[in-house]
Design goal:
By secondary structure, the chain is mainly β. The chain has one domain. It has no helices and seven strands. The strands form two sheets. The chain has a four-stranded antiparallel beta sheet with strand order 4-5-6-7, with no helix packed on it. The chain has a three-stranded antiparallel beta sheet with strand order 1-2-3, with no helix packed on it. It is globular, with a radius of gyration of 13 Å. The N and C termini lie far apart (41 Å).
């Protein structure tokens, strides 16, 4: 069974820049999950490495780790209290 996972998107309000979100679907769209975070991306660019994406925005680091074909881990590290 295939799971479609899309990490990041383009926000029309920010001129089409990368936005921190996750869209997943399974069973031909019968089941889906969309996770969005309201951080504002101004000039930052994500850092792509094999199976991992990091995006530093202000006092937060958004991390996306691809664990296998149907699992992803998303975390936000807060750099200050």
């Amino acid at each position: 069974m295939r799971t479609d996972i899309k990490v990041g998107g383009k926000d029309e309000n920010t001129g089409g820049k990368f936005t921190p979100n996750i869209n997943m679907q399974k069973w031909n769209g019968e089941c889906w999950l969309n996770i969005n975070h309201p951080d504002i991306v101004s000039g930052q660019k994500p850092d792509f490495t094999p199976n991992k994406i990091e995006l530093i925005l202000n006092d937060k680091i958004h991390r996306y780790k691809i664990l296998d074909r149907s699992r992803i881990e998303y975390e936000i590290d807060f750099l200050q209290k």
